[in-house]
Amino acid sequence: MSSSKTNAGSSMGFSSQALSVSFVSPTKVVDHTEYVVQVSLSGKTWQCQRRYKEFDELHQKLRRVNPDLPIPNMPPKKWFGNMVPGFVEQRQRDLQAYVDELLQNSRWASMHILRAFFDTHRHMNDSQQDTSMGYRANQSTSSVTPMPSMAGDSNAQFEAEAMEAEDLAEVRQLILDLDIADPVSGSKNWTEVRQFNLMFSTEMGSTAEGASTIYLRPETAQGIFVNFLNVQKTARMKVPFGIAQIGKAFRNEIIARQFIFRMREFEQMEMQFFVRPGEELKWYEYWKEERMKWHLALGIPEKKYRFHDHVKMAHYANAAADIEFEYPFGFKELEGIHSRTDFDLMRHQEHSGKKLQYFDPEVNENYVPYVIETSIGLDRMFLAVLASSIQNEELEDGSSRVVMKIPNFLAPYKAAIMPLTKKDGLPEKAREILDGLKSEFNCQYDEKDSIGKRYRRQDAIGTPLSITVDHQSIEDNTVTIRDRDSMEQERVSIDELENIIRGKVKLV
Length: 508
Fold this sequence. Notes:
The protein folds into three domains: about 20-175, PX Domain (2-Layer Sandwich); about 215-385, BirA Bifunctional Protein, domain 2 (2-Layer Sandwich), CATH 3.30.930; about 395-505, Anticodon-binding domain (Rossmann fold, 3-Layer(aba) Sandwich), CATH 3.40.50.800. It has about 500 residues and is α+β, with helices and mostly antiparallel strands. A six-stranded antiparallel sheet has the order 6-7-13-10-9-8, sandwiched between helices. Strands 17-16-18-19-20 form a five-stranded mixed sheet, sandwiched between helices. Helices cover about 35% and strands about 25% of the residues.
């Protein structure tokens, strides 16, 4: 289902009701500051937390949906010292003034984008619902956590029944009744609800008449569950243990977008870690920590990553979180970590009629293990590495260079061997050095263009070291080695090259 953006900037149906926003206090969260905001509307009051970046994104959205409407100036960005207490307090005052000026303009104040930013849609959808029943009011969290409510249960039940009956018209009516709007445009001009097919089907069989319909797998995990007992018994594994694999997955995405971030065919890396029931949450926290350590070991700045703990989870899960990465288009899911309980093995056991139980000699008990899953897209990981590595640097002499500061151990080429000229025996000497290194390191030979252009070329493809062979190399068996990141050059013996490269490209 989609929404037309022609009605961007329309109100939520309560534009006449005054929205009050007041900043309470800033809260330091690891590497950024979040501002606690108290919101009041129609006698209801609640709190939410927003960071400066989110206010800036709101500002940009408002400008896009109504470019002709004058908008207050947003407090400027500050790259350094933005967590100093004095500056934080001043920024809070500036943000308060910015919001106050927005709310003084009835056209801005009535826009759904602005009101949704302060969680009004969560509190005002059901005007008859008491705040204490539906949501935690006055709670200092970045998002307001739904609590069980009579109205919410009724709506959920209605939706479930409509979906089960495939009554899509009823689903659409529920959306209209709840006054749900597009979070980007503010539009409520919804199309009819339609079923989308997320699986690819094909046929298998030697003849057209005898062909059977099969489906390309939308995930890789099920192969692990099917072979759980085979692996456990043949390898004599004891719980806890994990099975990992990498393979192709296929999903009929409604819209494949954002370069290689979302594709219809992709590589999936997954691990299913089998644990004793009752210990799953301990192992869930363990793998959250270990997987983040793995990402940070790549040398990518820690600020590029964040955890997103799920509030709403799949019916079979009792804990779930995403590791999100800051791509050029914002923070997006990179890896998922889930505590899946015993759902998968129990379903396979139920439908196959084969027991998938494990006998634990330590507790003298048979049980179906619980599962901790960690799943990461290889293509997304590749994009994350490239996106974080490429830089456009301004140099001291006023020039600039494009450099791919890819982690050294991931660099396609570890070193480039470059003769200063194509004569005087320099190419022969360079190839001699290349022959001595290529058995251990993937190296590139480059003799085209000036040495400066070659340095820039190697910077752009991420080669950590460039080795220049000149006339002195023939005399004293030394070369000039240049570091990609610092651009510093050093004269070293050819005999030391192997150890220097090994130390430079090793996994920290």
